[in-house]
Amino acid sequence: MPVSVQLLEALDDACKEEDQEKICDVLDRLQETDLDVDFIVKHVGKKVKLLRTHSSAEVKKKAVALTQFWKEVVKKKVESSGKGKGRAAVKVKEEEVKQEVDNAAKIGKDSIERSGKIAVLPERTRAINHKNVESCPKGKPVVYWMSRDQRVQDNWAMLYAQQQALEAGAPLAVCFNLVDSFLGAGLRQFGFMLRGLKEVEEELKELNIPFFLLRGDCVKTIPKFVKDNNVGLVVPVWVASDKQEVGARTLRPKIHRLLPKFHQNFPAVMSHPHPWKTSPPPTDFEAALKSLKCDESIPEVTWAKPGSAAGLENLSKFLMQKFKNFNTKRNDPSEEVLSDMSPWLHFGQVAPARCALEAKSFSKMHSESYASYIEELVVRRELSDNFCHYNKKYDSLEGCAGWAQETLKVHAGDKRPHVYSLAKLEEAKTHDDLWNAAQLELVHRGKMHGFMRMYWAKKILEWTSSPEEALKFAILLNDKYNLDGRDPNGFVGCMWSIGGVHDMG
């Protein structure tokens, strides 16, 4: 749901409850948000005008100020458009406003009715074999092999799969292949993932699209599923750069050149008109979780609820309550201004593009926070993906630059006043209270403040017998406790702190 619609609903709720404090809070957020002019005129403007006669002097004052502010916004928009004056000029973009405030399903349905297909950029797809993937044989089922992007909406691979199925008049299904163990992931990480997939299955059911949880080696399970179901097309998941970048300064301009093309709103996955031959029984996710061969000693967290719905709710809270202070206070661990979106982003339950699109609504009022957020959300994430994709030694000191390896080698024999074992580090039993607090946050919360993550890793280098051991311990602890462990961001964070990766970037 767009931020503009969320604010409109919040204002309605506050007015119904006659909660003056809430009304004032929503009015403040409305003034901070970069709203579409047509949305102001057609929807929220009328409601705010009514509040100019409210019994509360504070509400009345804010409503009058906001109305005057919006008048200036509309005036500037009309003057810049060159399409006339007054209200008539504002209505020129009526169709765009309808698309903004309509629900996602309506947008998706309209896009298909107008063009006969969901518009997925060719740049978003690539062939992984030499077979023709331009279209699916008529009537033969299409399967979306879900992996990194574990969500239904805001998912271009899912949209492409439905596009192919609709054009072929064929059924559509989604499968996910679950392995018994994955790079040391434990109950904490598998639990978050599987509970998110349960939401995926429920959402797909509402759209007449079955979900299949496969178990075992995908080299065997996927071909068997394709054969058993006579599948005509399998859509797996997939360019910012064609080489390893030395740092953010070289990747940043490439990302920003591509943003206008890839930074577009998503159509919606619609209810699928061609049913699967038989409906599979509901997946027993609890049984699947209990059957895994994983470490059960680290409990699941309670602060972050798995699934796209909870992730988007957290995003909305961040943008409305914390975003204005993000640029100035994001590096202060004592301030709660971070988005805390990493668990949902790591498991693909929320799209980074959705975060960026929603943040754009606040870009004019909080331009510096927006720039900082895009730098971390898009540029730094893409830089991490780029490094792990092009550097096969992404988790080894051999993957560091030559100057970094030489520096570490020269100082390998330096005297270390404190040397700790893995057990002492894991139990947060060092002489440094600040480091211990960061480690305990990691253990109990499954997440560490980004600024403290850097300090945490650099101290491990200082307190271990060798750089190789430091990197090994840092990656092990990160992957064991962090909800977003085994992620390019985690590997690159450790490699930067210990091996200088992307320094001078």
TrEMBL record:
Keyword hit for Membrane: no
Single GO MF annotation: deoxyribodipyrimidine photo-lyase activity
Cofactor(s) required for function per UniProt: FAD
Keyword Flavoprotein: yes
Listed name of the protein: Deoxyribodipyrimidine photo-lyase
Protein EC: 4.1.99.3
Domain TFIIS N-terminal as annotated: residue spans: 1-77
Endpoints of the signal sequence: none
Residue intervals of the Photolyase/cryptochrome alpha/beta domain: 140-274
InterPro entries with a match to the protein in the record: Crypto/Photolyase_FAD-like_sf, Crypto/Photolyase_N_sf, DNA_photolyase_N, Photolyase_Class-2, Rossmann-like_a/b/a_fold, TFIIS/LEDGF_dom_sf, TFIIS_N
Main enzyme class: lyase
Intracellular or extracellular location(s): Nucleus
Upper lineage: Eukaryota, Cryptophyceae, Pyrenomonadales, Geminigeraceae, Guillardia
Family under the similarity heading: Belongs to the DNA photolyase class-2 family.
Catalysed reactions listed for this entry: cyclobutadipyrimidine (in DNA) = 2 pyrimidine residues (in DNA)
Record keywords, A-Z: DNA damage, DNA repair, DNA-binding, FAD, Flavoprotein, Lyase, Nucleus
Organism: Guillardia theta (strain CCMP2712)
An example Gene Ontology biological process: UV protection
Annotated GO CC locations: nucleus
